[in-house]
Here is the input.
Amino acid sequence: MHRTVPTPARPLARPLDRPLARLLVVLAAALVALLVTAASVGAAPDAKAPAPETIVKVTGNASEGFGIEHYDGSSTFPPTHSEAMAECQEYSAKVGRIRCRVEVKTWYRDLVATKRALKYAHRS
Here is the structure.
């Protein structure tokens, strides 16, 4: 009898090895913090101040670049949409390039939604 030993699958490129992926993770965490903070602000008038990384303002657009201001006064300026898409081409595997493009499109769509939500919240 011949016995075959399964070979381990080749690991995909780790998404957090790229600066863009790390930036997207940090900004996604900031968006979650904003949503959690917004939900808790209405709960009690004596609520604590929001987390320092809470997003308080989003300016710009995808083609010219966004500016993201945080509660602690710091700012983040992610690359423009076209720059981020160009970085996706650096992945050697087709699956990695596709995953990166989907993340970029989702991220910029969510930035526009966050900008719109903040404008609405500030009107109240």
